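User: Structure tokens for this complex, please. No commentary.
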Amino acid sequence: MMVNIADHTVPVTVLTGYLGAGKTTLLNRILTHEHGKKVAVIVNEFGEVGIDNQLVIDADEEIFEMNNGCICCTVRGDLIRIIGNLMRRRDKFDHLVIETTGLADPAPVIQTFFVDEDMQAQLNLDAVVTVVDAKRIHQHWEADEAQEQIAFADVILLNKTDLVSEANLKTLENRIRAMNAMAKIYRTQDAAVAMDSILGVSAFDLNRALEIDPNFLGEDTHEHDQTVSSVALTASGAIDGERLNGWLAHLLQTQGSDIFRMKGILSIAGEDRRFVFQGVHMLFDGRADRPWKTHETRKNELVFIGRNLDEVKLKEDFRACLV
Amino acid sequence: MPSLSQPRLDLQWRGTLSDYVTAIVWSANGEQVAVCSAAGEIQCLNVITQHLVQVQRASGQSVDTLDFSHDSQFLAAGGQDGSLYIWQMTSATPQLLTRLPHSTWMEHLLWHPHRLELAFSLGRYAQIWDAQTQQVSTTLPFASSTVLDLAWHPQRDYLAVAGDQSVKIWNLEDKDADPDVRELPTASIRVAWSADGNYLASGNLDRSLVVWPWDLPFPWRMTGFPGKVRQLAWSTVPVGTAPLLAAASTTGILTWQKQEQGDQDWTAQVLDWHQQQVNAIAFQPGTALLASASADGYICLWQQGHKRVQSCKGSASGLSCLAWQPNGSTLAVGDQRGEWQLWSPSQRGQGFS
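Assistant:
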């Protein structure tokens, strides 16, 4: 399956975060910034969306299970219905923002964009932006939703930094980095962030380079005191395509519900081009990318974000795929 | 055999709305055809007098569903402003009879096939409005999800309501009884009774098609469609032992025919000609001629549900909907930019078969 990134598709930003973290403040900043553009906003409770002339639609989060409860086949039925309806307009909209409730797992929203044929054809998921209340997140660490919202994020706003000490912020940042090594983290007050940090991110575009925080790669030991973590695998040399296929298929079959997201760039033996891929739970999207350049070092980089990941075993199994 | 280059239908009339034509419907007596758009307009043409009326002006809020009552007296409409509108259509100027405001989008409505009762969807409920009392007479809780489609049984007092995980069939002669629940492993997005009332078909989100005998919960199931099964149509006449069923999924149409022998077997035929998504299909009343309309603007006619006898470009912007006049003589189509057209048999050609 391919995430369509043709020019005429409408970008979509997904906003997640706990109630009171600052989602509505950020939403209003986006709407102010996009003044003059048509922005459609799908919310789950009418908050104080303060901009007139924008299309604000109140939706019930309706989870549709496509395949006997298989986690990767859960999609947001309300989004399919509402967006299908909205996309009929000639002057559609320039940008769609979907705000989830504080207690929502972001996976079904993301999966809807991978699975539904109409959403794939007409929209492109730009980024999942998670707003974290730097002061109150500690009360929610144990909640699955809080962990999932961080794990699925492409951009994380560490908001309300004025209410927390620098030392606490640093600790919090490290903890979040250990959970999600791919997300960009920004410290904010009142959700004030440069708009180009959260819009036009193209986080689900396979053409975009895989970015792993170099600090994360540099460390030998990470904090693995939490259940949700990131594992980055890097190796030079070439991968045996068949072995890799077998490994990933087995991994997603057995641990797909615990693997939230993954991304990678691979050097497959016998192939002139890079192989790039991404995944959300069991949904996998990969293809041959540009050719390796003559003086470029061929290498392999993969990142997994998930729950109860066995870093040692992942590394071992990955190394076994090297030629 | 007619050649493909000589169309059997010719363009006879065209009208314009300002945005995507969301629905097109004929009155049961075949005298009026009504269209509505994503900009909120509703127009109605009397094909006898050629008198065109603007039933509702553009409001910026889409009208998504439209239907004439069985006696052609009333036109009902619903859409994004949440209101149910009903007009009396018997005089030259439509009279707005009632407006019932609601806060959620009204996406489906359908008049009873032989009574002045209107079923409509309202979030997770279906309701029935009675034209005699001008009141909502019945509220049916689908409950498990938003209502995704509705269909009245053509003869019996049954309303089928589609949604996630099931199609529920309410027997309205016994309004307190629980509905008959036809379970599904997915969401039903389109539901249709055959005209003889013997079969109920459900087009599903998981790329499958399910058909139940009207009175039994054991379905025939067909999987492996290229996309969601988004449109269904039954022929009004039998082909063999049962009406022919057509289902549209991405660029393809599949026709399903019940076999003479045995209870189990249906044979499928794939109609593979359209280059872009098939947005509407309908059998000509009284025959097994299937009309299809696609997102690249082509209209296609398929004899006996499989032999392509005409294909022509109807619109530069892509077609969104179509409907046959009840006597089968005129085909109405709407496009994605607001144009709508009437096509009838060419004077020089022969009639339909």
